[in-house]
Sequence to fold (747 residues):
Amino acid sequence: MPLLEIRGLTATVGDTQILNGIDLTADAGEVHAIMGPNGSGKSTLAQVLAGNPAYDVTGGSVRYDGKDLLAMQPEERAQAGIFLAFQYPVEIPGVSNAYFLRAAYNEMRKARGMEEVDPLEFADLMDERLRLVDMDASMLTRSVNAGFSGGEKKRNEILQMAVLDPKLAILDETDSGLDIDALRVVANGVNQLRRPDNASIVVTHYQRLLNYIVPDFVHVLVAGRIVRSGTRSLALELEDKGYDWLTGGASGSASGGSFAAAGQSAAIGA
Amino acid sequence: MTSSIDSLITREYQHGFVTDIEADTLPPGLDERVVRVISERKGEPEWMVDWRLKAFRRWRTMSEPHWPNVKYEPIDYQAVRYYSAPKTKKPLGSLDEVDPELLKTYAKLGIPLSEQKILAGVAVDAIFDSVSVGTTMKTELGKLGIIFCSFGEALREHPDLVRKYLGSVVPYSDNFFAALNSAVFSDGSFVYVPRGVRCPVELSTYFRINAADTGQFERTLIIADEGAYVSYLEGCTAPKRSTNQLHAAVVELVALPGATIKYSTVQNWFAGDAEGRGGVYNFVTKRGKAFDDAKISWTQVETGSAITWKYPSVILQGDNAVGEFYSVAVVNHHQQADTGTKMIHVGRNTRSNVVSKGISAGQGNNSYRGRVQVLPKAEHARNYTQCDSMLVGNRCGAHTFPYIEVANNSAIVEHEASTSKIGEDQIFYLKQRGLSAEQAVSMIVSGFCKEVFKELPMEFALEAQQLLGITLEGSVG
Fold:
């Protein structure tokens, strides 16, 4: 059973249709990269999977870990192991990162029928997680994302991911606005957390990130549809040629048969 | 979608029970006779009756203020009962004599009057309807010369102190509600901390309105003698009733040279139901006078009442006096609050600091009204005001009315204001980390109020935070 199985997913924001039938299958142990030009629906896909109420799902199905994902509340999805690293992490002034992280961590534990941890136990866990992602403990005493630089916010997302240890991590343009050092730290964190029993979906506009987080599969999203799937070489090809050679085919008939069924990505990848 | 900001079920007001207790209650209505009867019941000295009558006569010439940014049906002052006391056979001397029903009420409120609270280091004076029913830790405090008792007892045991300071900060002629209170107040708390003494525990009063159609008019007088320190906390609840109850209290603080008074309030009067029926009208005058090198600090967390009209203020009378005001005011459903502070700089090098956090949810309406006044002789006076509003949903209101009057060129007065809205994006972010909508709102609001909560005595900070969460339940889905 795949960890994630998306079939014919369509979604709108307001009156605008953004997703036009997405098919995607991801197994545990895999890293999938989703690439595409601006406005192609990459972030929408990420938000819809996390359950953002600003988007309306109008059709299709998503099964996650054997469950109907679309029937679950955002917090239930989170508790079931879905983590979204936000493109624009939100600021929560006055709430310390440590307090926030512990509250979130304990919610995850409660959902799994486990005891909550006290602040001391949690401090030990944080020490270890901070080392894993190579971040400074000063992150913990600051308010959640408030006054953080763009790079710090992204690193904070990765720290949260390291603490919450998701089964399916969705990284929404985590590389945008990062300098090369921050990019390395972020990628290193993701790679450290990579295991046979979890999966990642990495949404990015640029191939650059994929030099650090090497994907098993690459999907190209154009106008709300996956128009091509392949291995990492597809990303390199995109870097070379840009997106234009694919965008033309999005509405035409040429691409239809061979690439629309992105659910076959595993086969193509092999 | 924004429609998700609406759904969750509202938790019922937890303190909405009525205690079945025999009460000695005057019929509704107010005239000179009623004033005299109240005074008589309390066995007051002649000068006290005279003072009350002067206040009453003055009150009759005054009219209810309508400048606050609140709306309510006219109050019929002749329909209010001005005195209700739990019936007892003899005056209450110790806790053992208190009606067990009453003690049960306090237990329900989570205010154990006896040993537990003493262990927790809190001395409690409980005001039930209008009469003080028990003061804990009196003996212990007495050893330090600290007087902490009901107002009535203070009038009997320490009449000179009361006479000297009563009305010295809030004269009976001050305003409509203060005049009404001065005429009919039935009890309250009295604190005196002698020169150089640091009160070792938090002093605490718990107010409760129980009887129907009864107004509560308590009067609190706190005097910190030279160099003394005292921290005082009051909490307030009332049963759920479909009619409105009137609460017009007066609090006077006197901080003599070098003294410090810290006064904290957690106000959770019944706010009315989700449709805006019932609830307490909280029309309160609170003011302190700080002499040379003295400091008065007000901290308030206002989550209850249908209407709040309240401006805890400081007259910075002496040189180098310090005044502080930290406030969290929350309105939900149909609650209305017009609250803030007045900092009156009279002495030289006086400093004041104001931090106000207003939170509006549902169809609540929240106004900050603050006056900073620097008088001609207040050389180098300094004020900093920070006034932040947070909106939850899109049917509520937040308003700011700052008044600044400066008559001395060396003064520095700063006012900063901000308005923010709890965003769907913030809530979604926290939900994505596994928190429920309620936890998310509670966390965002607690963060917003952090600067004020940290001023509260530690054991009450948590309570305040929980109250806030309860008040806002149902405001976001």
Notes: Residues 2-472 of chain B form one domain. The first strand of chain B starts at residue 23 and ends at 25. The interface with chain A takes residues 1, 4, 423-426, 428-437, 439, 443-444, 446-451 of chain B (CB under 8 Å). The longest helix of chain B spans residues 437-453.
